[in-house]
Amino acid sequence: MDPIDYKILEILKKNAREKASNISKEIHLSVSSVIERIHHMEKEGIIQGYTTLIDENSLGNDLTALIEVRLEHPQYTEDFVSFVNQIPYVVSCYYLTGNFDYLIKISCRCSKHLEQLHQIIKNHPGVDNTCTHFVLKTTKNIYHVLPKDSA
């Protein structure tokens, strides 16, 4: 990775559908070199995929919540992770240090729907305790951070 690769990533971070020809103009590199660098970053796993950002509220998911989960024992970890990955309303799940083992981000329709999801999670074998937080407003939501001095 060199500064040019980081510049390409910064451009793709803003718009993953940006044409290689536009990137080449912005960073003063040939189109073929830009394409070659992007392919190399894909092959190396630096670029892992491309996605669409969707406005959850437009789809009727008006509630975002964070649920902290503590397991009774580490023996439940594998089963719990598999279980959480099957819930379509779970946006992300993080393994933590501290008083809780996991932090789950959920996007759902309403508080009644959240209650149903919470009951499913809380009653899963091995779950010892949960603590739920309602998100009132998202003030920052980025997905990747590039090193500050790279671009």
UniProtKB/TrEMBL annotation:
InterPro entries: AsnC-type_HTH_dom, Dimeric_a/b-barrel, Tscrpt_reg_AsnC-like, Tscrpt_reg_AsnC/Lrp_C, WH-like_DNA-bd_sf, WH_DNA-bd_sf. Residues 1-62 form the HTH asnC-type domain. It holds the Pfam family HTH_24. Keywords: DNA-binding, Transcription, Transcription regulation. Gene3D superfamilies: 3.30.70.920, Winged helix-like DNA-binding domain superfamily/Winged helix DNA-binding domain. It comes from the Bacteria. This is Lrp/AsnC family transcriptional regulator.
